[in-house]
Amino acid sequence: PETHGWHLYTNAAVGVWFGQFVLPDWDMFWSHHECGEYHAAARAISGGPVYVSDKPGQHDVGVLRKLVLHDGTVPRCQDVGRLTPDCLFANPTRDPVALKIFNFNRGSAVVGVFNAQYHAEEKQRVTVRAAVSPADVPGFEGQSFVVYAHRSRQLRRMRKEDRWFVRLPERGWELFTMAPIEKGVAVIGLAEKYNSGGTIAGNRWADGRRLEVDVRDGGELLIWAEQPPTSVHVEGNPCRCRYDKRSRALRVNLTKPGAQTVVVEFASSD
Fold first, then answer.
1. Which of 31, 77, 200, 220 could form a disulfide with 63 if both were Cys (CB 3.0 to 4.6 A apart)?
2. Does pTM top 0.90 for this prediction?
């Protein structure tokens, strides 16, 4: 049990150096294990291949569905999962700091935060306090972002240097998808997937008020928008959606599996 956090830390550290010339393999894991989600979340943002070694009939399908699209395709990150700069000279398996791993998707970034420590006796267990920021991602362009926390399902608008504080018990984790705001909109991706940003194949603006989003599968598409849309179409057909004025979250329910284009129109800014 003491090796789970060390396993993640080692792989992310390997990515810093070997990731410059190879695609590191983070190894197999058991989805049905008590640390199954802990490992699955890390594999989802590793950028490498994902595979499990459960015995037949003992897979945790709920965990696996968050890792893959309906056809089994993994929405992998575009780069190699690496330690954030503030983890380079700390040992998250021993020091009272969180293990933080970053990676990129098409038009967004992701930061995974993990408590990598383990103590067998409950009285010795350590809760770590972590600060998460868009500034944790080297080379991530933009000054204003929307950040989505996968487990708590919270959305926050953040500036480059803003920090989101979380407390993690041992074996605790959280994934933060970060999308830059453009024209008052930020595309997060399919909310139920660990790597939400990896489910977006691309997005573009037409006529300054129509956003076209290429989604790789069905599910709940999450978009942050300063203003509610005037209409939403999926593959040319009108689609109902939910817009929360408080959080500014636009949720589009894509009932059909497979790749599809969502067109979101907003009122003209003129």
1. 31
2. yes
Task: Report d(CA 241, CA 251) in Å as an integer.
Answer: 6
Q: Give pLDDT tens digits for 135-144.
A: 999 999 999 9
Q: 26, 79, 81: which is closest to 52 by C-alpha?
A: 26
Q: Enumerate helices (H) and strands (E) in the chain, giving the number of each.
A: 3, 17
Q: Which two tokens stand for residue 194?
A: 């660990």
Dihedrals phi, psi of 15, to nearest 5 degrees: -60, -30
C-alpha span between 14 and 60 (Å, rounded)? 28
For tokens 């203003």, name the residue: 227
Give the contacts of 269 (CB within 8 A, at least 6 positions apart). Answer: 208, 209
Q: How far is CA 102 from the centre of its chain?
A: 10
d(CA 61, CA 110): 24
How would you class 225 by CB atoms within 10 Å of its CB: exposed for 0-12, middle for 13-18, buried for 19 or more? Answer: buried
